[in-house]
């Protein structure tokens, strides 16, 4: 069920893998996508199973992700168009979804502020990670830790040279080359560079989604399959 799971004080967080759910092939098993042709009943059951294991009985708040830099305050039962989400509410799980893009989880336990971001190529360049940090700091966060989850690596993310130049002009650390020698982007490296400039302590819990069969990958598997990144601040 998990590619990575950890607790830091009262903060619980995890990045999922594809196992432990009920979706049938080709979506097997723990598909958390909103869209796509996987059974709605299966996806609902996958969410129920995941939340029951991660934070039994806790509500969750998520997003309709649009590859931008908008950041919202979490509200249970509402799914706004945004790519960053933050909260000071205890025992509310934040959830973002990825399938090659970079999931980032954030916490300042002492200040009681947590956040999550979905940083794809466009969102990374637009600055969704710094925007999420800025919103957390506006809520009182001062010592933020970030966890970076599974995403497609630079050796596997081939792009046209023009696209590489466009993104690298904004974030030079994202420039990369595939293992077969063509232009690529390393969005994860771009995110890590942004976090470093922001002075944020970072835990790199990433693996390449395309290279890892236990993870969903848009480039390898196609659309309609998603992993989850979850975080909550326990009340006690």
Automatic annotation (TrEMBL):
Keywords: Copper, Hydrolase, Metal-binding, Transferase, Zinc. It catalyses: inosine + phosphate = alpha-D-ribose 1-phosphate + hypoxanthine; S-methyl-5'-thioadenosine + phosphate = 5-(methylsulfanyl)-alpha-D-ribose 1-phosphate + adenine; adenosine + H2O + H(+) = inosine + NH4(+); adenosine + phosphate = alpha-D-ribose 1-phosphate + adenine. InterPro entries: Cu_polyphenol_OxRdtase, Cu_polyphenol_OxRdtase_sf, Cytotoxic_necrot_fac-like_cat. SUPFAM superfamilies: CNF1/YfiH-like putative cysteine hydrolases. It comes from the Bacteria. GO terms for molecular function: copper ion binding; hydrolase activity; S-methyl-5-thioadenosine phosphorylase activity. Pfam families: Cu-oxidase_4. The keyword Membrane does not apply. Purine nucleoside enzyme that catalyzes the phosphorolysis of adenosine and inosine nucleosides, yielding D-ribose 1-phosphate and the respective free bases, adenine and hypoxanthine. Also catalyzes the phosphorolysis of S-methyl-5'-thioadenosine into adenine and S-methyl-5-thio-alpha-D-ribose 1-phosphate. Also has adenosine deaminase activity. Belongs to the purine nucleoside phosphorylase YfiH/LACC1 family. This is Purine nucleoside phosphorylase.
């Amino acid at each position: 069920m998990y590619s990575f799971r950890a607790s830091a004080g009262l903060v619980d967080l995890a990045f999922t893998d594809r196992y432990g759910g009920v979706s049938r092939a080709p979506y097997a098993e723990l598909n958390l996508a909103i869209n796509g042709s996987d059974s709605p009943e299966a996806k609902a059951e996958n969410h129920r199973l995941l939340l029951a294991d991660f934070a039994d009985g806790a509500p969750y708040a998520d997003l309709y992700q649009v590859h931008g830099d908008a950041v919202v305050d979490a509200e249970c039962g509402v799914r706004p168009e945004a790519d960053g989400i933050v909260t000071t509410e205890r025992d509310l799980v934040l959830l973002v979804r990825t399938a090659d893009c970079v999931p980032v989880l954030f916490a300042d336990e002492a200040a009681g502020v947590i956040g999550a971001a979905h940083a794809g190529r466009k969102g990374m360049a637009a600055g969704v990670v710094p925007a999420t940090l800025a919103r957390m700091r506006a809520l009182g966060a001062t010592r933020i830790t970030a966890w970076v989850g599974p995403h497609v690596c630079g050796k596997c993310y081939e792009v046209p040279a023009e696209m590489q130049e466009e993104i690298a002009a904004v974030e030079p650390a994202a420039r990369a080359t595939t293992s077969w020698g063509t232009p690529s982007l390393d969005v994860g490296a771009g995110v890590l560079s942004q976090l470093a400039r922001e002075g944020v302590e970072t835990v790199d819990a990433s693996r390449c989604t395309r290279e890892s069969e236990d993870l969903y990958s848009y480039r390898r598997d196609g659309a309609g399959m998603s992993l989850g990144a979850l975080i909550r601040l326990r009340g006690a």
